[in-house]
Amino acid sequence: MSSQDIPEENLPAARETAHGEVADEKHPFADPGLPPHEHRVQDIDERAAKRSERSVAFLFTLSMLATVGFIASFVAIDHEKSVYVFPIGHINALNFALGLTLGVALFCIGAGAVHWARTLMSDVEVADERHPIAASPEVRAKVHADFKQGAKESAIGRRKLIRNTMFGAVALVPLSGVVLLRDLGPLPEDKLRHTLWSKGKLLVNMNTNEPLRPSDVAVGSLTFAKPEGLEEHDEEFQNEIAKAALMIVRIQPDNIKDKRELEWSHEGIVAYSKICTHVGCPISLYEQQTHHVLCPCHQSTFDLSDGARVIFGPAGHALPQLRIGVNDEGYLEAHGDFEEPVGPAFWERG
Length: 350
Prior knowledge:
This protein is of the alpha+beta class.
């Protein structure tokens, strides 16, 4: 069928919609407009609106309770405890409680917001023409007016129960993330400032696992020691030896330049931390003639005859010295712990 066979009243130029829109050859499909608005039951019945308000408030309140449950579960439930959940089986009780409470908290906020929007906020359809991105003053004024009208129609100012419970739920949910930061690991407290060394602890040779006597340390030799009672099969051995590892060098007393170093030594035997103060590498290279020790990682060099001060490299401060002496049985012993934290600096150090 050709266009000549189409009745004139059916041609695009002749069609007209109920809203007065006329189709033509350039725009053959006229805007049909919006259907008549249908009011919701909450728009005409205040009792139904109150029921919806209470439902939304209940969801927000349930979210707050779930967030509190999340925090309580994190604190109270042992991380090794398991529970049986049908049909999943045995699962970690802490993970199950955290996932359940956090899921309920987030779901209730979302469900409450959706229910609020669908039942109480204005649902009048508004059609607006597209406009350039750069809005004119008139458009901006219209947007501000629309925003104020929307805020008024949402009843957020009038329905205080919804507003307050929503604010409470949204304010509490972020606490879940804050609590999760606690799971990054145990708090360091002051553990970085102390080692296993204490008054009376014997210096034990790392190679022979025997207590050291002064005669065991020859001039120009380098010996590595650990605290008495620390064994390699201990669960915390790696953590403790990383702080307590000791290197022992015997220097002629006349060659010791630092007064405190000489006072804290025994017959020229000095004990320094083996942990480099740059990034914590173990120091293992010793030069007998100069009494310099070198960290193999980044070549930080320390002078053990002058308070282990840094003479080269990126290390920020000298190696901590351990005050030592000899007990009644003739064994080398510590007179206390290091007076400063061993290893590299950390943000709490001061």
